[in-house]
Amino acid sequence: MKKVYLETFGCQMNVSDSERVATSLAAEGLELVEDELSADLVLINTCSVREKAEQKLYTRVGEVKLREGTKPVIGVMGCVAQLEGETLFKKINGIDFVLGTRAVGRVNEAIRKVLSDGPGYADLGEREADYDWSVADAQRHSRSVAFVPIIEGCNKFCTYCIVPFSRGRETSLPASEIIRQVLELKRNGVKEVHLIGQNVNSYRPSTESGLEGFKGSSPFSRLLRAVAATGIERIKFNTSFPRDFNADIVEAIEENENLCNWVHLPVQSGSNKVLKDMRRLHTVESYKKKIDRIKASPRNIALTTDIIVGFPGETIEDFEQTMGLFEYSEYATAYIFKYSPRPDTPAYAMRDDVSPEEKTRRFLELERVQKHLQAKHLEGYIGRTVSVLAEKRSAKSPSDLSGHSTCHRVVNFPGSDGMLGSIVDVRITQAKANSLYGEVV
Ligand code: SAH
Ligand code: SF4
Ligand code: F3S
Questions:
Q1: d(Cα 11, Cα 16) in Å, to the nearest integer?
Q2: How far apart are the CA of 49 and the centre of ligand 3, in A?
Q3: For the chain, which has fewer Cβ within 10 Å, the N-terminal or C-terminal residue?
Q4: 55, 337, 360, 370: which to mutate for ligand 1, most atoms within 8 A of CB?
């Protein structure tokens, strides 16, 4: 066993878990390969948030099994692994081991077990405190951007959502540990950290350690100020839970230039009736108050969101209220999803009464409105200069570099390899469908 192909589906928490796994594998002398066909082990990090996401696991295992030559060992990790456990061996033929979201720290143990005892090994155990996770030699998705989990799990139990079941209860990392990681990343040349979690602003550590001396009305806004004080160039955070989003977070952004001007605040619906059935714990009115404060900020904060269309009981009137909220909020970007019933969630027991055709129609209609608003938003950048972290060569056009602005917009521009990893000022000349184009000034 030498070469490992690691494939990741799902959210930033899965990307972060894959980075930890990759780091453990490398420490064990295993090589991560880009070419799946040469791999002795194929590891699939799965997502269960919608049926389509879960389906990808079945498709991928089928494809790997069809491959010519020697068959690789197949390991399944992530949210499907945590939810299904050993039943996966019965559901999908050819899987060798299953590693839950709480067992990512023990990947090497799982591999050893399979090599010595054969297939059929599952570990869904408690997540150990991986606070000593070494940042210095970590395998990352980017040289200049790093994800730092600050809170794991979710206690919110929105009625449609599987995440509280696949990720367990909320646990916050001590601020002192987060700050240690950020300082180490900064020393290693990382320019941008993303503080990540299902609900970052529900951050509630069991100790004050690291937060002493930082003001703020919630532990999260104090953490933001503490991380800002490390002096790292850019700090982004997601996702924020609307109920727990307070003005103090905007104030922290206003006081610290290195706290980036981007807030992702998933509203899910513009109808109070639907929000109540989703158990989102915010109303359209309370949400609007929060975004009014965000929009009033001189920092020019970009607001993004997630929406579910076709939730059980969503009428045309409810949907029209969502459209209305879109016009009001003028999101920089919106991720729109069709409701997908997830087994064992409370909404699963509700009648999924919006037909697939109607869900598609609402999806497309909202997407059309959003595209229009986004185009207007992007055109507003033409002639302006934005600060961009040059992250990589553009995949489409090799003479261009690609990166993100402080407000998390993709910006492409002609540039040399020497610029990679640095922050440059780019004057925007063109607005594309989902990105901006410009020239370094
Ligand atoms: N913690 C974040 C989001 C986690 S999941 C939050 O609370 O906002 C990412 C997005 O997937 C959600 O915001 C929601 O829009 C969508 N989603 C979750 N469950 C879904 C389901 N059953 N069907 C369709 N979309 C879903
Ligand atoms: Fe899911 Fe709601 Fe938790 Fe977000 S807050 S992860 S949507 S249960
Ligand atoms: Fe998917 Fe699990 Fe994230 S279900 S969205 S990978 S927490």
A1: 9
A2: 6
A3: C
A4: 337
Region 14-30: mean pLDDT is 93
Q: What is the pLDDT of residues 67-107, one digit of tens each?
A: 888 889 999 999 999 999 999 999 999 999 999 998 988 99
pTM, to two decimals: 0.96
How far apart (Å, rounded) are the C-alpha atoms in residues 165 and 440?
46
More confident call, 47 vs 64: 47
Q: Ligand 1 center to residue 96 CA distance, Å?
A: 30
Query: How many other CB atoms are there within 10 angstroms of residue 48's CB atom?
Result: 23
Residue with tokens 């061996």: 89
Q: Which of 69, 8, 80, 78 is nearest to 40 (CA)?
A: 69
Q: Which residue has the tokens 């020697």?
A: 70
Q: Are 79 and 50 in contact (CB under 8 A)?
A: no
* Nearest-atom index, ligand 2, CA of 280: 2
Compute the distance between CA of residue 132 and CA of residue 163 in angstroms, rounded to an integer. 26
Query: Which residue lies with its CA nearest to atom 2 of ligand 2?
Result: 158
pLDDT at 125 (0 to 100): 81
- Rounded mean pLDDT, 252-277: 98
CB under 6 Å to ligand 1: residues? Answer: 49-50, 160-161, 163, 198-199, 239, 241, 266, 268, 306, 308, 337, 339-340, 342
For the residues 241-250, what does the mean pLDDT come to? 97
Check if 48 has its Cβ closer than 6 Å to any atom of ligand 3.
Answer: yes
Q: What architecture is the 3-123 domain classified under in CATH?
A: 3-Layer(aba) Sandwich (3.40)
Q: 385-440: what CATH class?
A: mainly beta
**263: amino acid identity, one letter:** V
In the chain, what are the domain boundaries? 3-123, 385-440
pLDDT in tens, 143-196: 899 999 999 999 999 999 999 999 999 999 999 999 999 999 999 999 999 999
